[in-house]
Amino acid sequence: MLYIKNAAQVATISGGSHAPKTGIEMERLNIIENGGVVVDGERIVFVGADQEAVEYVSRHGGEDVNVILAEGKTVTPGLIDPHTHVVFAGSREHELTLRLRGATYMEILQAGGGILNSTNKTRAASEAQLIGETRKRLDRFLAHGVTTIEAKSGYGLRLADELKQLRAARFLHDEHPVDLVSTFMGAHAVPPEYKSDPDAFVTILTEEMIPAVAKEGLAEYCDVFCEEGVFTPKQSRTILEAGLKWGLKPKIHADEIVPYGGAELAAEIGAVSAEHLLRASDAGIRAMAEKGVIAVLLPGTAFFLMTKPADARKMIEAGVPVALSTDRNPGSSPTESLLFMMNLACLTMRMTPAEALTACTINAAHAIGRADRIGSIEAGKQADLVIFDAPNIEYMQYHYAVNLTETVIKNGIPVIVNGQRNYA
Ligand code: NIG
Ligand code: FE
């Protein structure tokens, strides 16, 4: 038995397991002051006032109780990142200099760099090499309190290499403490060999790649970069509908660079989530609210591409459930700090600290179909927990750009202890 004793705050984020939190609900964290959490095996068995936790432990604990003192600290659910492109080879730091000199993200892609640069490196890498590079990123995620992530393919852009990425993700899910939920995103860019005939690539995606990925059970979701100069809304719909036919639930990179009808399309096809949404239209936002499409917002991408972030306030006020993510990728957001994304959500999108935490826990869990197991601290849920060196949840956003993660419990096991790695 493991007992987290007397935390200044336990932010349970309870009450949202059946549906993502919207509007004012995003502010209701159901915080317990002077709280205790008790874990038995892989499950949370008690959460409440520390005085009651003491009694629970003395009644059920026996001799073997690992007590972690959390005085003056804040306990939250393990953070969840519902949008990453974490499996890739190499890096693209030279693009930062190009962009600082005036090149845009899309110009770099159209000149064969950007996503296509990472595609070349990923195609050339072995599966073992991909696993090795990605493992280091997962270590960093965990050190920042992130216990589950979504992972998209999309740097292979041809069957063998897309499969290689997805198999690497599956291997790491089994091997590493961080859990990975896979998304097939072969529609991340049009590869050079199809530049003159993108529709032919759409056919390869729908008739060859999606069936192969589904048959091998390598992904739960299908995603498309619906953007001017990449995939049109019509092509995106074709791809996502093919995914649905093969049991892959739709997600969409929508309205990132220009307004392009991506939010509207997400609502029309009943996507689980629409992501980015920097330039989403008012009609698109309303449609998402009506259909309950989750907005996965990526303030780090706007920050790193030096552009205006999504209008989170408008979305929350319209009743759209909002989640947050790093977008971890080699080009537009090379970071594993979901905590810093929360800082940015507060400081650049005016989300409150409470909304930001809801967006990285229960709402993020809904965006990857795991809200029955993770995303809140409730008896019966998986024991994924973080102790932050912060006296309350507001302090986590106030003492910004610093990793306040102290202890991380994954599946009931302390994997980061006092900031130090505690796993093989
Ligand atoms: O979500 N926008 C498209 N895809 C990624 C970036 C991928 C890359 O630049 O390598 C994103 O920002
Ligand atoms: Fe992305």
Characterise the protein shown here.
The chain has 16 helices and 17 strands. The protein is globular. The strands form 2 sheets. Strands 1, 2, 3, 4, 5, 14, 15, 16 and 17 form a 9-stranded mixed sheet that branches. An 8-stranded parallel sheet has the order 6-7-8-9-10-11-12-13. The model has no long low-confidence stretch (mean pLDDT 98). Helix content is 38%, strand content 22%. The chain has helices spanning 50-60, 94-100, 105-110, 115-124, 127-143, 159-175, 198-215, 233-245, 262-269, 282-291, 299-304, 312-318, 338-349, 353-359, 362-367, 393-398, and strands at 2-11, 31-40, 43-49, 66-69, 74-77, 79-81, 146-152, 179-187, 221-226, 249-254, 273-276, 294-297, 322-324, 385-388, 405-410, 413-417, 420-421. The structure holds N-(iminomethyl)-L-glutamic acid and fe (iii) ion. N-(iminomethyl)-L-glutamic acid (NIG) binds at residues 85, 114-115, 118, 225, 253, 256, 301, 327, 329-332.
